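User: My collaborator sent over this chain with a note saying "see what the structure looks like." That's all I know about it. Can you take a look?
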Amino acid sequence: MDEGSYTGTPRAGRVKGFVMVLAAAVFWGLSGTAAQVLFQGEGFRPEWLVTVRMGLSGMILVLGTAVFAGPRAALGPLVHPVDALRLTLFGIFGMLGVQYSYFASVAEGNAATATLLQYLAPAMIVLYAAARSRRMPGLRQIAAVGLALAGTFLLVTGGQIQALTVPWTSVVWGLASAVTLAFYTVYPGRLLRRYGAPATVGWAMVVGAAVPALGGALQPGPAVPGETWWIAWGLTAFVVFFGTLVSFLFYLTSLRFLTPAETSLLASAEPVSAVVSAALFLHVNLGMTGAAGAACILAAVVLLARPK
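Assistant: Without extra context I'll predict from the sequence alone. Here is the result:
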């Protein structure tokens, strides 16, 4: 039985799905490297970039939902008080939490390490599910958690307990990013089932952006030197549109052609993209031990993404 007949999707559609989810993963990885340039080379602040990124992308998603699905679909998550509260919590602790902690980790360290630490989230979800159900995880899940822990140790210490290969603040923010990504993944299930991903994620981005905006995150704006303004604003546009809006839409569209397990597995190309782009453009070198740690984390992600 070929792939097309197995999924009920024509082969051309599956190829399209593979291309779209891989493109999304690459854009996500590249956006981390672009953000590192903005933070460490152009003087941008993580809170400013997060606010602009989520605010613009969120408004576009909500307006797009209103145009293509109707105003009722766009406003759906706001109608019922309980769901509106859920959306607010998701926007603040999920959307804002994961994006700010990730960018803070990038600003303090580098995009490669920040992305790999964020990908500890699947292992954290396994532990959460086991604790909630009061059941031991399976052997494959235990192996994945072990690989994730070993990979983290190798990545941040280089194999030496007494030394960190990246600033401890970057490690803390990276681990916070993994925790908030786990929350981001688990919490909004009811909202997604009721209102769909574009409206739910769009409003969550708007809510998440409103909090730092009201706190003054947009002031002062970046003071970009005249000779590099086009690089800085070009990278900003890439992070906002390709690293957020386009990648999100590509990922969602790929679900029409591929199974969730396949998309999750292919999305693990994101940390690979982040590591490769950081090495090529920023000369970030994880070293042999760090590379082994990265391989352990990726292996854990692949184990957890494979269908049972």
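A starting point for your reply to your collaborator: Residues 28 and 243 are 5 Å apart (CA to CA).
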